[in-house]
Amino acid sequence: MEEYDHDSDNFDVEHGVDFESLPSDGLVVARHLLPDELPLIPVRPRPAFPGLMIPMALNDPLQVAAFYSAMKESKQTIGLVLARNMDAEDTPENIYSVGVVGKIVKVISADEKSAHFLVNCMERFTVYNVRSRKEGLIGSVTYHLSAELSDNKELKAYSMAILTTLKELIQINPLYSEEIKLFLNRSSLDDPGRLADFAANLTSSDGHKLQSILEAFDVRGRIDKVLVLLKNELEVSRMQTRISKQIEEKMSGQQREFFLREQLKAIKKELGLEKDGKTAEIEKFEQRLATLKLNEEGQRTIDEELDKLRLLEPASPEYTVSRNYLDWLTILPWGRYSKDSFKIDRARRILDRDHFGLDDVKERILEFIAVGKMKGDISGSIICLVGPPGVGKTSIGHSIADALGRKFFRFSLGGMRDEAEIKGHRRTYIGAMPGKVIQAIKSAGTANPVLMLDEIDKIGASFHGDPASALLEVLDPEQNAAFRDHFMDVPFDLSNVLFIATANQLDTIPAPLLDRMEIIRLSGYIAREKIEIAKRYLIPKTLKNHGLQKGDVTINKSALLGIIEGYAREAGVRGLENRIKKIMRKSSMKFVQDGIKKIFVTRQGLESFLGQPTFNPDERFAESPGVVTGLAWTSMGGTTLQIESTAVKSQSKGFKQTGQLGKVMVESAEIAYSYVMANLEQYGAAADYFDSRFVHLHVPAGATPKDGPSAGVTMATSLLSMLLFIPTRPKLGMTGELTLTGHVLPIGGLKEKVIAARRVGLETLIFPEGNRKDFEELPDYLKDGLEVHYASCYPQVFKVAFAQRGKKQNCKKLFSTSITA
Question: Which of 645, 710, 721, 792 is catalytic?
Answer without folding.
Answer: 710
